[in-house]
Amino acid sequence: MAVDAPPAPPHPLFQVGAADLPESFDDDLGWILSKYVERTGARGGALTIHYDDGRTPEPVYAYGRPATDDALASGLAAIAEQSSLHDWRSEQASSSWQDLTVGSDGWRILSLPIASDAHQRLVMTTVHDGGDPAVLLPSEMMAQRLQPVLAGYFKLWLLNRAQRRRLDGLASALNSTDIAIMLLDGAGHIIFLNDAGRGLLDDVDGVRRVGRGFAATDPADAVKLRVAIEHVIASNRARSEAPSDARSPVVSLRRKGERRALIAAVLPVERAPANPSDPVAIVYVFTPDIDVGELLKPICQVYSLSPSEIRVAALLAEGNSVTEAAERMRVKVPTLRTYLKQIFAKTGTARQGDLIRLLMTSLIRTRSEAGHKFI
Of 206, 166, 165, 198, whose CA–CA distance to 182 is shortest? Predict the structure, then answer.
């Protein structure tokens, strides 16, 4: 029984990043391109993606001769770009032949547009030995026969690629906050963990990793946390739509020494799961002993507070009285009250309670290394 040889590894020029393709699509590309090259009697081929906004075409995968010849790969990309400009919005574009000379070698290049969306198009190009056009007719006919099959697959490929990039954007948004966020499936396994959550678990103080999930480090807290998560998972499985009054347990998780306890809130996802691997619960873990002053700086700068006024606002937000804040700043109480009046005027508040409420509800809780730039 004949066994297909494994596809050659892609040329580095044509490799894609892990963020661009899931493993299944990445693994399939080599097999699909190798079969297309075999069926059309080509010496090799390449898949390229082209954009309607003038961006440089992006190579995706190369197989056979183009995978070992940079000049040939570049020539294929140029021919594919010309092909992509024709019938951009047609449902099915036809194949076309062009000649390409690389060094002393002369090639016939068959380009075939295979899939597109509103902004981009995929083109398959194959390399053939030069010769009588009639000899190459079967190759063109085979390409046309394969085009509908390839079009169906690569339309899904483009959709998957767009969805992956949207998910990458959402992950970046969640990674920018200092609140630990964990997404759990029906078995309590972590299927997403932002950077703050990863750092918290690595710290092993209050929470820790347990297999594919996590638990509290304190035994008593571990029981409470597990019950809270199981309650949300069970209630989410039993519903078809998220009830507006769904209970979201909040658990305090003790830490070492004098450090303040973590606060974990467990919430159900909005849509009931259809499969065991679907997201079921969201866990937010807040760290109370964060530097409030650093978090308040961006919003204080919006109100044009001076460094001294920012310091006053931070001390008051941390729960210090006016007297205690004056002592920590090493100024007299009347001086601090003068600062406070200036803060009231700039923020449009009249009382200390209103000021604290304004500041705390306006916290920009991004990770400190992200920084902020105001324009």
Answer: 198
CATH number, span 292-360: 1.10.10.10
Query: Is there a contact between 74 and 66 (Cβ–Cβ < 8 Å)?
Result: no
What is the pTM for the complete model shown?
A: 0.67
**Band of pLDDT at residue 19, cut at 50, 70 and 90:** very low
The CATH number of 12-173, from 3.40.50.150, 3.30.450.190, 3.40.50.1980, 3.10.180.10, is 3.30.450.190
The token pair that represents 180 in the structure block = 């630990």
Task: From residue 193, give the alpha-carbon distance in Å to each of 17, 252, 359.
Answer: 20, 20, 28
Q: Are 345 and 328 in contact (CB under 8 A)?
A: no
pLDDT in tens, 103-158: 888 899 999 999 888 888 899 999 998 777 777 889 999 999 999 999 999 999 88
